[in-house]
Design brief:
It is built from no helices and 7 strands. The protein is mainly beta and about 70 residues long. A hairpin with a 5-residue loop joins strand 4 and strand 5.
Length: about 70
């Protein structure tokens, strides 16, 4: 499965299947009642746009499902 990522260095999006989920604290609910995954998503290969390895809050990522 590919996730959609945003490269903060070049300000463009890319998709990649090369990631892992870390620091997974499970599903949480915010003050508005919205549920989200409290975890970190880390690229396991360098970003194809800038060559760096980025990490993201899972809640920052665009949903890959349509």
């Amino acid at each position: 499965m590919d996730f959609i990522f945003f490269c903060p260095s070049v300000h463009q999006t890319f998709d990649s299947p090369d990631f892992k989920i870390t620091k997974n604290q499970g599903i949480k609910t915010d003050s508005y009642g919205n549920r989200y995954l409290d975890a970190i998503v880390v690229l396991t290969k360098p970003c194809p746009l800038c060559g760096e390895t980025h990490e993201y809050q899972a809640s920052e990522l665009t949903c890959p499902f349509q």
